[in-house]
Specification:
Elements: H1 2-12, E1 14-17, E2 35-42, E3 48-54, E4 70-71, E5 77-83, H2 91-107, E6 111-114, E7 121-126, E8 129-135, E9 141-144, H3 145-158, E10 168-172, E11 177-183
Parallel strand pairs: 1-5, 4-9
Antiparallel strand pairs: 2-3, 3-7, 5-10, 6-9, 7-8, 8-11, 10-11
Bound molecules: 2-acetamido-2-deoxy-beta-D-glucopyranose (NAG) (2 copies).
């Protein structure tokens, strides 16, 4: 299943120009008008910073009629790298975030909830690497920590200078969520 997911990601690997995702985002933020609700550290060494945040520019791209939490583990997503090369995160730093997610998967639980509305974004950071997950559904969803870890370990090394890139993102094929990896 993982190999299928990763193969389909690789086949869909595309390039998006920085212009198409250009935003006026303040330093240390992942979206325009970000409001940080809480901050703590996770992982075996408690060195990966987690923030729950509001990203007002995203959300409600998909209308789900269900009010219960929808499990989106294993859903296919479409990876795009940000061009041009230069200024990408160090893949080993991203791998520390992925390992912290795997550690939490074993010690806390396989799933993590992502609310909607004012609490639609989860941000993780270690050293040069920043990854964030956004719920674009009108209702709450839950995703697998190991899935996010796999996406980070795929995007970080595959959207680097050698690919004329500096990070990237994977958007659920139904637009319900996306996960991004870029320089902190
Ligand atoms: C935001 O959502 C997370 C779960 O994703 C929850 O643990 C946290 O308490 C929420 N924060 C607020 C301010 O609602
Ligand atoms: C994947 O993303 C690329 C670039 O944004 C887009 O051209 C393509 O249509 C997308 N494919 C799917 C299956 O969503």
């Amino acid at each position: 299943m993982w190999s299928f997911t990763l193969i389909s990601l690789a086949l869909l690997l595309a390039k998006v120009s920085a212009a198409s995702v250009a935003r006026t985002v303040a330093a240390g933020e992942v979206c325009e008008g970000q409001v940080t609700l809480s901050e703590y550290y996770i992982g075996q060494d408690k060195n990966v910073k987690v923030q729950h945040a509001t990203c007002p520019e995203y959300g409600s791209k998909v209308e789900t009629l269900e009010s219960r939490q929808v499990d989106v583990c294993g859903n296919a997503c479409n990876t795009s790298c940000f061009t041009p090369s230069g200024g990408g995160p160090v893949p080993n730093d991203c791998h520390v975030i992925a390992d912290a997610l795997r550690f939490d998967s074993q010690n806390i639980g396989a799933l993590f909830p992502v609310s909607t509305g004012t609490n639609n974004t989860v941000v993780m950071q270690f050293a040069t690497c920043l990854s964030f997950f956004v719920n674009q559904d009108s209702g709450p969803i839950e995703y697998c920590r190991t899935d996010w870890a796999s996406l980070i370990d795929f995007i970080a090394p595959n959207c680097q200078a050698t690919q004329n890139a500096h990070g990237g993102l994977c958007v659920a094929t139904n637009q319900q969520w996306f996960a991004q990896v870029n320089h902190a």
